[in-house]
Amino acid sequence: MTTEDWTALLRESVPAFNAYRHAHPVQPVSLFEANLAWMDLAHVNFEGADLRRSLLEGCNLAGATFDHARMDHANLRSARLQGASLRGVTLTSGVFQGADLRGAALHDARLRRVIFCDANLTGARFTGANLDEADLRWAIYVLDEMGDADLSSARIR
Predict the structure, then answer these.
(1) Rounded Cα–Cα distance for residues 122 and 7 (Å)
(2) Which of 3, 21, 48, 142 is a good FRET partner for 41, with 20 to 30 A between their CA atoms?
(3) Does the pTM exceed 0.90?
């Protein structure tokens, strides 16, 4: 399926998208450069998907699964990701500015040069994550909740 086919399936409904993924578990999901801005995608299954350069600005992604997705240069500005799972994602030079990531799981995520300015990271878990050169200025978080995340060269307040 093409990016346009996957996007059309998402516009139909998240349950239809998730059902198709369940029925075709080995089919790769490519949403490269997809414009999904401001959609309600709560509980969507983006596990292992190619979301590089995708526009997810303002989306409701609460409870969504992004585990092991490729998300380099994705824009998630002002997205709502409460309780989302982003375990093992690769997201270099992405944007979470103003996003709500309360309670999200970002274990072992590679988040190099990601902008988290003004994001709410309360209760988010970053065990084993790499936040090298990430921008955490003005973000809401508790440093103790960062676990053993690599914050070398990160911009912190």
Answers:
(1) 31
(2) 142
(3) yes
